[in-house]
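Question: I have long wanted to understand how a fold can be written as tokens. Here is the record:
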Amino acid sequence: MVSGVTAPGEPVAAAPVAAIVPRGRVAVVDIGSNTVRLVVYDAPTRLPIPVFNERAHCALGRSMAKTGRLDPDGVDEALRALARFARLADAMGVERMQLVATAAVRDASDGPEFVERIEQSIGHAVHVVSGAEEARLAAVGLMSGVPKADGVLGDLGGGSLDLVGLDKGSIGAFASLPLGHLRLAEESDGDPQKARALLAKRLDATPWLGELEGRSFYAVGGSWRALARIFIDQTHYPLHVLDNYTIGFFDALRLADLIARLSTSTLERLPSIAHRRLETLSYAAAALAAVLEAVRPRDVVFSGFGMREGQMLELLPAALWHQDPLIAACEQQAERTGRFAVPAGTEMLDWMTPLFADETEADRRLRLATCLLSDIGWSEHPDYRALHAFHRVLRVPYAGLTHPDRVRLAVAVLVRYGGDPDDPMVAPVHNLLNDDHGAHARVCGLALRLAHTLTGSVPGLLSRTRLATDDKRLLLFFEGDGAVFLSETVERRFRNLARALDLKPKIA
């Protein structure tokens, strides 16, 4: 076990420094114990969306517990996959590609020989990360989407389980246990309950875990995301988005314990599980149950971001690290797909601010994201525009959004396009919103509908009008001649907004 404690905010281990700041596409190749994966990103942006993502199931760490060496068939398959990945990256115009090898290559006696073969065959250096650095990179990736993460991060791979204590965004204690789902299967002789007991014994030697009881546990890694898919299906959860899917401690423990006891033949009947996960899924569930019993968190948050994203971020200019990943992504979306060269997001945000005098900073941030995405459906067919925009926004692959936030954003954009929040297609996610947030989304959507109608969505015009409220009225003012703004449609949409606020409309 690798373990240690750092001062608050101090990196766990020094990161490799990129010699060249990338200006185009960057790629990360993750050579893991179970899979080898290539992810290509457009850069530089705060958290680029992958433009290509492919994995090869190589199982390099299979049988390592017994032999201490990489699986020979896995080595051949990995070399074949890496040769393809290198050629694809060249064809895609990737300017910098980082190859990262984790637990299997790090611990295998023939790991150095394998690295040498890779470097000779494809001409790219391989960075073999230590357990401490792997844990730190996972924390960097997680916090790219959850900057104030507080509790314990657990990253389960095929060869290791990395644990990191997090204190409102600062990295604290860490441990790297050589017990990923492949090794647990081998060392327990094929018995998931024995694997659970084996891991529990190792976790007992990590006393700092108990000090973080009652906070969140952040589950990272493909096997735990596969469990999240089962949880979503079995609980009939209405939103099939894995990132930031959150479940209470007792429900998570109950479901993990149940899956750990299921036979492979039973797991095969679950529709949401890839066949390659079946062999070790019960061990991943047993590992989650053991960790949850050791940590006893308030809830479990499944993350779509981890070590690869942490490595990718370290290839980007440092200035991008301070950007809000959600707002940066929404700005990029508005610039790429909007009708006009300059998005009017901030202009709309300021214009409707008098309607939201008591909102929190988090509400304002979400309202800005809504403004930036409010023209996302302009090119859709009018009959389908509202629902198409709703579903697009609900499932945007952006970091920094809880599931209730996603629903608020999507409902606001739906209303902006004249959609009905009570539409049967929308109703399944209603229970993720409380009444206050639902009302906030509706008012925001109606205000955006009015703003786009007033100006034809042209940036710069909205600042020539102004909204205000008094005790009983919603007021709309114009600068100079208001003829360019007034119409029957504008007046109707202004009345709808006033009605939602329980105010009388007055155009001044």
The radius of gyration is 25 Å.
